Amino acid sequence: MGVAMLRVEGLQKVFRSGKSEVALFENLSFQVAKGEMLAIVGESGAGKSTLLHILGALDRASAGDVYCANLRLNTLSEAAAAEFRNREIGFVWQFHYLLPEFTALENVAMPLLLRDCPWQDAQKDAIRWLREVGLEQRADHRAGELSGGEQQRVALARSLITQPKLLLADEPTGDLDGHTADSVFELIARLHRECQLTSLIATHNLAFARRCQRVLRLKDGQVEEVAPKELRV
Fold this sequence. Notes:
Blueprint: E1 4-17, E2 20-33, E3 37-41, H1 48-55, E4 63-68, E5 71-72, H2 78-88, E6 89-92, H3 104-113, H4 119-132, H5 148-160, E7 166-170, H6 178-194, E8 198-202, H7 206-210, E9 214-219, E10 222-226
Parallel strand pairs: 3-8, 3-9, 6-7, 7-8
Antiparallel strand pairs: 1-2, 1-4, 4-5, 9-10
Helix pairs in contact: 3-4, 3-5, 4-5, 5-6
């Protein structure tokens, strides 16, 4: 393995249910090398989304440590965690979370505007990223005027406009039909290569997981590495 972008040590997440505690997962330890494309698979409820939230500093583990480029995430204040997410992480979710009252261009530009970037500069970058995902001609359309696949492409452009080092995608094709899902996955794979990202993709789609460099399976609160070619589609 090359230089580690992510290092996970003894990670545990416990939820309280009434007077009892339920461990979603415990003692997870693994590394993700810079430039890798890693799939995370597992049944619904196994903890894939929660794990991504912790790796992206959206949630905190009950125990254990996450290091991203030698930054210890569980020691960050809320303000520092927000800055880390805005600077280092690109998120893509199953639902696109586009702002319906804004155009595709305005949605893509939003992360830069939140950094107080001048509108002219943010607009220029947003147009470039819409071109990257094949939607420059839809820049002035509002989110509700776009198809599901187009909305997810806009969400991907929005996640990458800040030039993050790490892309976290949670079931990014889960709401799409087979053909559209395949085109979105191909786009993610292309941008992963061209932007030299480190990407973690939680997915139920084992055909997509097979196309990643590595696969981790969450099962019964533990994580195991699986050779992509061993996944049964």
